Please model this.
Amino acid sequence: MPATRCQRAGPGATMAPIMIVGIILAAGASSRMGRPKALLPIGGDTFVTRVCRTILEAGVDDLVVVAGAEHEAIAEAVGRAALPARIVENARRDEGQLSSVLTGLAVADRPGVDAVLVHLVDAPLVRPETVRAVIAAFLRTRAPVVRPSAGGRHGHPVLFARRVFDDLRRADPAVGAKDVLRAHAAEICDVAVDDEGAWRDFDTPEDLARLAHPGPAD
Model:
């Protein structure tokens, strides 16, 4: 069972029900891959539907997919898979990844939402157990940021509590969400996981070829 390196919240903090919205970032240009990463095949899924299924299996049933130029094709893939996710186009995607986080947050943020769980569409191998571990750590600690960790590496998904939503909105677009991570560095909850999928992303055709034909290191 994954261990956490973070402090518990006060008594009774785990009792109240919470609402978490998943935000899947799929608006990148995929320039190095040469085709939309969200629509790449993986098993019987695409990257985007695989990530949706994983987060749903982990217990998050409210999903927002932030898409770019291929938003119609992504919406079709998600609809064909009958997955309950809302697709929103980031018209400002050229401004960087933070713009996609904020596009998703604009849809996700409503009364009663306690946190958003942000995941990258190009990291489709993350396990549901990892997502559940991140959520469980937030339930125990109410930390402002919770993320998977191993050997000094930090991966996805990253959970942002409501109390840092405005920090995300004020963050420097050139720095992105790292601005928020730095501001709350002393309070971040790192969850130790044994899951290569939490930080393994696919950016190039060579990465994709290794997914289809893994070598000994994979």
Notes: The first strand starts at residue 3 and ends at 5.
